Amino acid sequence: MNAAAGGKGLRILASVSPGEVRVVLLSGDELREAWVERPARPDGVGDVHRARVSALAPAMAGAFLALEGGETGFLPDGEMPGKRGGLSEGQGVLVRVSRAAQGGKGPRLTARLSAAEAALGPAEGPPKLLAQGPEAALRLARALPTAPVVTDGPALAARLRAALGEGRVVLSHQPVFDAALDGEFAALAEPEVPLPGGGRLLIHPTPALTAIDVDAGPVAGQDRAAQQRFNLLAVAESARQVRLRRLAGGILLDLAGLSVKQRAAYAEPLGKALARDGLAQLLGLGPLGLFEIRRQRVHPPLHEVLAGPLTPGLAALRQAVREDAAVPGRRLALRVAPVVLAALQGLPGALAEAEAAMTRKLTLRPDPSLPLAGWTIEEMPHGG
Predict the structure, then answer these.
(1) Same domain, 272 and 374
(2) Of 123, 237, 334, 345, most Cβ neighbours within 10 A?
(3) pLDDT digits (tens, 9 = 90+) for 220-240
(4) What is the distance between the alpha carbons of residues 305 and 318, in angstroms, rounded to a whole number?
(5) How far is CA 60 from the centre of its chain?
(6) Residues 151 and 114 in one domain
(7) CA distance 32 to 246
């Protein structure tokens, strides 16, 4: 880790780049949490809205509420303070987003607000966003009041200092993510997780569930004690990856090379590893020998955030800004696939932020020969 990330204990690092903020929680040099936020497209969790009841849904034990911008959220009866029910169509309600939208469904809402949230405005009136939820760095800082916060974004540092106090937030003049942390962060988008001593986890999210397969590799041919040590490592790393990637819904874990009876011995260590994550619960060992885990969804899983052409485009912009800072004054051109360029152009503010951060305007060149994740940065000749 670089100097900004050095030391022991819990630390929060927030890396700001065009169109994106990446935040990590480190314990020593171990990655504990990882967040990717695109400020132009927030997930909405924690937002406080003045909403209007658009339809009652007694069969679903709740109501659909219209939010500003035409979005519709769902308010369960159990999330109304006091006596359940009692809503009527057209009624105004103050609500907070408790779970991000998913799969074409709108966000989940709650009307159980703090006094400060309830004072943000009257319930009656047209739907309106009254306050945005806290960004990841602030959420982590509030949850961990002794952890220092280091960021390379001046505007973010100013917002955090206003909320947390001057002494707790450090503004770094160097990128807070070094190459090692960049690589570890990027690996969270990959399906394969290497395990110490050989073997790997294979993580495959689907719309219905996530499958985690433990591949023992060279350990499979070793003695039973080696296999036991390997599976204990696999159990701990599986629980860590579930939290890091914010996997949600049903999760099936398939350990390596064990009978169903032998696998039962790993229920206790798996349950303990998952207990560190307040959103995860071990349901048990199924008849097929698969551990069944359920994790509550609040924010979108990382694989949803990182899917598509925008992620490689923002990585390319980030690298272009770094190369300009290393040798200012050069004329740089960025070649990306056309679909990646379109994604960058469709994200409000990203290209303008890159231009503002560079000493000379970045030339963008669509290149149909490049794959989705491929891009190149070239130095243009003077006068070219």
Answers:
(1) no
(2) 334
(3) 666 778 888 899 999 999 999
(4) 17
(5) 29
(6) no
(7) 11
Over residues 364-371, the mean pLDDT reads 96
Cα(204)–Cα(207) distance, integer angstroms: 10
Please give the structure tokens belonging to residue 338: 């056309």
Cβ(241)–Cβ(287) under 8 Å?
A: no
Backbone angles phi and psi of 273, in degrees to 5: -65, -40
Among residues 1, 143, 127, 142, the alpha carbon closest in space to that of 68 is found at 127
Range of the domain at 340: 308-379
- 227 and 291 inside one domain: yes
> Which of 208, 275, 265 minimizes the C-alpha distance to 239?
275
Residues 275 and 140 in one domain: no
- Residue 266's DSSP bridge partners are none
Q: How many helices (H) and strands (E) are present in the chain, helices listed first?
A: 11, 20
Q: Are residues 142 and 33 in the same domain?
A: yes
Structure tokens at 209: 């569930």
Q: In terms of DSSP H, where are the helices of the chain?
A: 115-118, 136-143, 154-164, 179-187, 224-244, 260-263, 267-275, 302-306, 310-326, 338-346, 350-357
Q: What is the 3-state secondary structure (H, E, C) of 216-244?
A: CHHHHHCCHHHHHHHHHHHHHHHHHHHHH
pLDDT one-digit tens code per residue, 233-264: 999 999 999 999 999 999 999 998 788 888 99
- Fill in the amino acid letter for 115: A
SS3 content of the chain, % helix, strand, coil (to 5): 35, 30, 35
123: left (phi over 0), alpha (psi -120 to 50) or beta: alpha
